[in-house]
Design a protein that fits this description.
Elements: H1 2-15, E1 34-37, E2 40-43, E3 51-53, E4 63-67, H2 71-79, E5 86-91, E6 95-97, H3 102-106, E7 116-118, H4 119-122, H5 125-128, E8 133-143, E9 148-153, E10 165-169, E11 172-175, E12 180-181, H6 189-192, E13 194-195, H7 199-215, H8 223-229, E14 231-235, H9 239-259, E15 268-273, H10 283-295, E16 298-302, E17 305-308, E18 312-315, E19 320-322, E20 325-328, E21 332-333, H11 336-340, E22 351-353, E23 365-367, E24 372-374, H12 387-406, E25 431-436, E26 439-443, E27 454-457, H13 458-471, H14 475-491
Parallel strand pairs: 3-10, 4-5, 4-11, 5-8, 11-23, 13-20, 14-15, 14-20, 15-16, 22-24
Antiparallel strand pairs: 1-2, 6-7, 8-9, 9-10, 12-21, 17-18, 18-19, 25-26, 26-27
Helix pairs in contact: 2-12
Length: 498
């Protein structure tokens, strides 16, 4: 590493006398002497000038900067016209996660790559166009009056290169920074629980699950310790928590009982929920889900977690619940980045937007997805943090900016007099959730009080799988998912710990 750093420093010194590093890269890239890796800036700055992308000129394509690579940001990038705009995406991950199928990867039903879609495949211009980029970085600050975002590259451990700060000037900014899991200030959650929102979360759950299975089979382990190691606790009875519990119960019944016969009677799942599970679903479907989960071996506990310790959680009634694996799935809220932005906020702390998804106090800034919500002045309710909401907002905003670009308003401060067209309207398409044992719930009502089709059972499970298979973004991943499902059905789940 020391030799590598020395070579970089020598190379930087030699290049200081040249005209500009940007001429050997993409034409618009302006930066201090540094090393460029995988579309991100990793730098050893020898001057006070900061790297970055400067403002676009009037004869250049306007630049739209997207913060985030979730459902909203990726759907926007897929729909934006790259003949009108250069696209720059800033995100700490270089892929989109197909979250409805993430729980299936924890137990080996699907491979991890089946639910991850690279950004370059979603918007090919990022990989090929001279003015479009993907930067593996976090946005650290926003200067809306100068149309600039401040960013810092993502590092990977203590042995990686130092983080590199840079700036990006934008003509249009789309904040799609997502959300973070809610812990409600409960002590120990962040340190001891595993969330289920990213691929690396699923990998960690799988690692712990298989490790505990093997450790529990070692001679000398007491029965009490076996029961703790093999007790999987899920906190949160929403769709994610219920689906993971269902997948886990399937894994136990169909694979653990066959391949870990010595400990099969010790492993069990507990789902803890303060109120009712699947509260947004029809009452009949909730009762059906409860019955099926209990039938498949999932223990349902109504309670509120008070404290989380390394090997046990404490409920508000004083009950101690030992665990070997703790998965936290209790909803989401605004991230620290969103909380720190000096922008108007909607109820709940989200970035406040108007009916056209604009942040009304600044020019050329939009917000979509879980990080945004309608301002109280609009008279509209805050939309739920659902993938279908984010996807619909991304599609709508891409269409709006395409219209603005065609009308000549793509550059900064150039769209003040442009017609905005119809405001964004969200129509709920319904909800689905799998509960294991080839059963699922399908609720197609537009609201909890509304009328519509609701069903449960094997047919619903088939509809669930068919619907999500068609929603996977690329044909490559659809093929992966279909093959994974077929392989699991014939040969069982993979239980290798790699």
């Amino acid at each position: 590493m020391a030799l590598f750093r020395k070579l970089i420093q020598l190379s930087s010194t030699a290049r200081q006398s040249s005209s500009s590093l940007s001429s050997s890269l993409k034409p618009k890239l302006s930066m201090t002497p540094s090393l460029v890796l995988a579309g991100s800036f990793w730098g050893f700055s020898t001057t006070s000038r900061q790297a970055g992308l400067g403002p676009t000129k009037s004869d250049e394509k306007p630049r739209v900067v997207v913060l985030g690579s979730g459902w909203a940001g990726c759907r926007f990038m897929k729909g934006i016209d790259t003949n009108l705009y250069d696209v720059v995406c800033v995100s700490p991950r270089n892929h989109m996660v197909f979250t409805p199928l993430l729980a299936s990867t924890c137990v080996g039903t699907l491979e991890f790559r089946s639910v991850a879609e690279p950004i370059g495949r979603i918007q090919p211009a990022i990989s090929s166009e001279p003015g479009s980029y993907f930067f593996l970085a976090n946005c650290t600050a926003l200067d809306p009056h100068n149309h600039v975002v401040h960013c810092q590259t993502v590092t990977d451990g203590a042995d990686s290169l130092d983080p590199w700060d840079f700036k990006i000037s934008y003509d249009k900014l789309v904040i799609a920074a997502g959300s973070q899991p809610l812990t409600f200030g409960i002590k120990g959650v962040t340190e001891h629980a595993v969330f289920l929102r990213e691929v690396y979360h699923a990998q960690e759950i799988r690692r712990k699950l298989l490790l505990n299975l093997m450790l529990s089979d070692v001679p000398g382990v007491t029965e009490e310790e076996k029961r703790r190691l093999l007790h999987c606790v899920v906190v949160g009875g929403g769709p994610t928590g219920v689906e993971f519990s269902g997948e886990l119960s399937d894994f136990i019944i169909k694979d653990v009982h066959q391949r870990y016969a010595h400990v099969k009677n010790y492993i069990h799942v507990t789902l803890i929920e303060a109120n009712e599970i699947l509260s947004s679903f029809d009452d009949r479907l909730r009762k059906y889900a409860t019955k099926q989960l209990v039938k498949s071996g999932v223990r349902l506990v109504h309670g509120i977690v008070k404290d989380v310790q390394p090997e046990k959680i404490i409920l508000n009634d004083g009950t101690n619940v030992p665990y070997g694996l703790l998965v936290w799935s209790t909803g989401v809220g605004p991230s620290g980045f969103v909380n720190n932005l000096e922008l108007p906020k909607a109820p709940g702390g989200r970035i406040g937007v108007d009916e056209w998804l604009r942040v009304p106090t600044v020019q050329d800034v939009f917000s979509i997805g879980d990080c945004s919500g309608f301002l109280e002045s609009t008279g509209r309710p805050t939309l739920p943090a659902l993938a279908q909401v984010a996807e619909r907002q991304g599609k709508y905003l891409a269409s709006q900016l395409n219209k603005i670009g065609k009308a000549g308003g793509g550059h900064a401060n150039a769209a003040k007099d442009n017609e905005l067209g119809e405001p964004f309207v969200y129509k709920h398409l319904g909800s689905m959730a799998t509960i294991g044992s080839f059963k699922a719930l399908v609720d197609l009502r537009q609201s909890k009080e509304g009328k519509g089709l609701s069903m449960a059972g094997f047919v619903s499970w088939f509809i669930w799988r068919s619907a999500y298979l068609t929603r996977v973004l690329s044909w490559r991943n659809r093929f992966y998912v279909a093959i994974n499902w077929a392989t699991t059905f014939v040969f069982g789940r993979d239980i290798s710990r790699i």
